[in-house]
Amino acid sequence: MGSIIPSSDTLCRRIAGLVARKEDEVVVELGAGTGVISRALLAAGVPAEKLVVVEIVRDMADHLRAALPGVNVICGDAFELARDLPKALHGKVGTAICGIPLVMLPLADQQRFVSAVESVAPGKGFLLYTYCITSPLPYRKLALSAKREVWTPMNFPPASVWRYQPAR
Ligand SMILES: C[S@@+](CC[C@H](N)C(=O)[O-])C[C@H]1O[C@@H](n2cnc3c(N)ncnc32)[C@H](O)[C@@H]1O
């Protein structure tokens, strides 16, 4: 399920608090919309040059580029990261954050997304924020492990952040 209301400050801060990256790694936000989470990531200390935002809608990508100086905004498809993320960043993703409402997609498309992330961030998985009460992804079918890292009522609607990683 998606929301037409941007994520709250609290949710954005909680997401930013989950981000980890080594010095040479980037944080990749997939489906940034208005950029509220991107701004929280910058406020939490992610250097602009280490933040990569992938947004499929050209007008939104243009808006993000103007609003987020120094951030690498890519107008591209999160399901085609092997193609759309610069090769130099493959294997250099510390954390990937997904703002695309994957819950609404068929399993085959969810699998395509999981594979796309795995192709550029092997073993890392991704964070997914959601308004679902239970896991928005059928993680066992997708060969993922799942952990709810955050639940907050300080968002409309109340939101959770899940961490999905390839199951071992
Ligand atoms: C729910 S909005 C994110 C909202 C934002 N994080 C916020 O809280 O305001 C989802 C965003 O993902 C983008 N999007 C959808 N499919 C995408 C794809 N395949 N690749 C990249 N971005 C995509 C949409 O254009 C939209 O901006």
TrEMBL record:
GO molecular function list: methyltransferase activity
Key word Nucleotide-binding present: no
UniProt-listed GO biological process terms: methylation
Listed InterPro entries: KsgA/Erm (IPR001737), Methyltransf_25 (IPR041698), SAM-dependent_MTases_sf (IPR029063)
Key words, A-Z: Methyltransferase, RNA-binding, S-adenosyl-L-methionine, Transferase
Organism superkingdom: Bacteria
Gene3D superfamilies: Vaccinia Virus protein VP39
Domain Methyltransferase: 27-120
Protein name: Methyltransferase domain-containing protein
Organism the protein comes from: Falsiroseomonas selenitidurans
